[in-house]
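ok so I'm stuck.
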Amino acid sequence: MFRTIGDQPSLWESLLPEELARVDALLDDPAFFAPFAPHFHPLIGRPSTPVECYLRLMFLKFRYRLGYESLCAEVSDSITWRRFCRIPLDGKVPHSTTLIKLTSRCGEEAVAGLNEALWAKAAGAKLLRTARVRADTTVIAANVAYPADSGLLAKAVGKLVRTARRVQAAGGATATKTVDRRRAAARRVREIASKLRTRGKLSREESTQALARVTGGLAELAEKAAAEAAAVLRNGRCAVPKALSGQVHGRLRRALDELAVTIERTGKIVAQAGPAWPGRLRRARPAWSACMTPMPGRSARGASTAQSSSAIRPRSATTTTASSSTTASNSAQLPTARS
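replied:
not stuck anymore, here's the structure
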């Protein structure tokens, strides 16, 4: 049977000093009893522990960080806490198991109802601005995985393959051939991990050369994947005007934009990981970096379609003629310089 208020204290007990008078006056509101009513029958059953007593006991438990058994012991020995919990001097403090069963029976729903009632009461008293609620979070320590060159290169290979397939699924560059190099990249990452575990068995130079060799192979895979993705990007841009459906058109453009960003970031990762393997010939600007120009009609500076298309194809007839004329002039000047 559901009970909200227990037996009233005697006159002598009511004259005792109240250290928790403000909390006691706040918990007298019947709004705090309502969340517990659905968990009890109003008439049938044994009379339950009064909710006002249970609320005050739980407040003392969380306020002073006590366990259930220590809470019952402290309330039994303290006249002030008995008065606060509305337990008479000759009354019996609820057992710890009773409190545990009540807590598990009501569950989180009752706690959520109590919080809502408390927020409503604070908002009614203009103690809380309901438009802004400041919540406190608990910070939990976690393992931080710092990015390494090998991990970034492997992720770049996987992202290039997935994004290129999205472009082809949207109808762009369907005939362009791409090779899935994700398994090869993962195999080299595992090889790097095994080399790091056996570093103590080798000399410093041997371990450095082995790691440089594997990392160089991983960078070569990333460059090959980026070159194939650049071809997909170039051919996919040609298929953008042919997309008739608006949905297909938007999906293709988004995939192409993402692929362009991925290729650009892959080039930066390959460039910064280059010094890890000495003796490798690195180009300052890879051939596939020419595809990083804006899409036709979407340039930030309002470039025309002709300018963008010419930027995609850097090698033109004019450039070839100019380079050949420059070579001829230089060769013509050589005899003069020797004489």
